[in-house]
Design a protein that fits this description.
- The chain is α/β, with parallel strands linked by helices.
- The protein is built from 11 helices and 14 strands.
- The strands form 3 sheets. A 7-stranded mixed sheet has the order 10-9-8-11-12-14-13, sandwiched between helices. The chain has a 4-stranded antiparallel sheet with strand order 2-3-1-4, with helices on one face.
- α1 packs antiparallel against α4, α6 runs parallel beside α7 and α10 packs parallel to α11.
- The longest helix has 14 residues.
- The chain is globular and about 50 Å long.
- The termini are far apart.
């Protein structure tokens, strides 16, 4: 078996939770975080011991380290580029180190932790290798997770999926900005949308999205994906626009997203950490968007807005 790549991200301990949440966007099979800032307290609370290994006591308490693992089929450079962009956008100082990870069957090990999961009231996300599941009347979204963000388990994706349920119905058209794995636009089609379009600057994301669309029985022109910038590649107006990205990009999107919205359309945004809430709210106000819904989970926010 080919070797996996381990990526280690070192950040200030105050940023470790946010850095971990962003890192978890890169891979669908979990991450490992080293955070020794509360070592003695946690050792006592968990194991009721106060004798701790000297090597552990010597660890840097001011830093946290996030570990993720990239399969041989994927490109570590794509993951590093993704992390660099998102950490920079969120103002997180970081150092990234790559190394070869030998003698571990990560590819199979992580799959046993990713099971079919119900989301909201209408959807069930099913990893394609899981054949035993009960849909119980839910629409089944077949998903092949990859490097492209969007396994459905992350708070930001789940918030978007739950919010989409309230706005997508028969005849609606949907635009998915920064589509990642395509999970949101595929879900929109399963929820009854007439058509959907996704756009992403990352070629791997578009490739993964197209594969997931085909795996759920959708193809062009009803569901299409394009690589590139929103303004270069997309035209027309939509009933639902969704962007699960980061705060800085959402702030920039607010300036022209109305060009893609029908008069009664809804703009759903997620991927926003709590400390950036006011920045995003200011952008909504500045650009004539009214907040009609706010949802929070795990320190992440999702907003529903409409044109004032």
């Amino acid at each position: 078996m080919s070797d996996w790549t381990e990526i280690k991200i070192s950040v200030d301990v105050k940023d470790v939770d946010s850095a971990g949440a962003i890192a978890n966007m890169v891979v669908p099979y979990g991450i490992y975080i080293e955070d020794y800032s509360s070592l003695e307290q946690e050792a006592w609370e968990i194991a009721r011991i106060d004798l701790i290994d000297e090597d552990l006591l010597a660890k840097d308490r001011s830093k946290g380290i996030v570990h993720i693992y990239i399969s041989p089929q994927e490109n570590p450079a794509e993951a590093v580029a993704f992390l660099t962009e998102r950490y920079t956008a969120e103002g997180i100082e970081y150092e990234i180190d790559e190394s070869v990870c030998r003698n571990a069957d990560w590819e199979n090990n992580w799959k046993k932790y990713f099971k079919p999961i119900p989301v909201g009231e209408k959807l069930l996300i099913r990893p394609v290798w899981e054949d035993e599941f009960e849909a119980n009347g839910r629409a089944v979204l077949n998903l092949e997770p990859g490097l492209a963000f969007g396994s459905g388990t992350h708070d930001t994706t789940r918030l978007c999926l739950e919010t989409l349920e309230n706005h997508v119905e028969s005849g609606k058209t949907v635009l998915d900005i920064g589509c990642g794995s395509g999970i949101l636009s595929v879900a929109a089609m399963l929820l009854g949308a007439q058509s959907a379009a996704g756009v992403d600057i990352d070629a791997l994301a578009v490739k993964t999205a197209r594969e997931n669309a085909e795996g759920n029985g959708f193809s062009q022109p009803e569901l299409c994906y394009v690589q590139g910038d929103l303004t270069d590649k997309i035209s027309g107006k939509f009933d639902v626009v969704v962007a699960n990205i980061v705060a800085d990009i959402i702030v920039r999107l607010c300036a022209n997203v109305k060009d893609y919205m029908n008069p009664d359309a809804v703009f759903i945004t997620s991927g926003i950490i709590l400390p950036r809430e006011q920045d995003v709210l200011d952008a909504f106000e500045k650009n004539g968007l009214e907040v009609i819904g706010r949802h929070e989970s795990g320190g992440w926010l999702c907003f529903e807005t409409k044109i004032k």
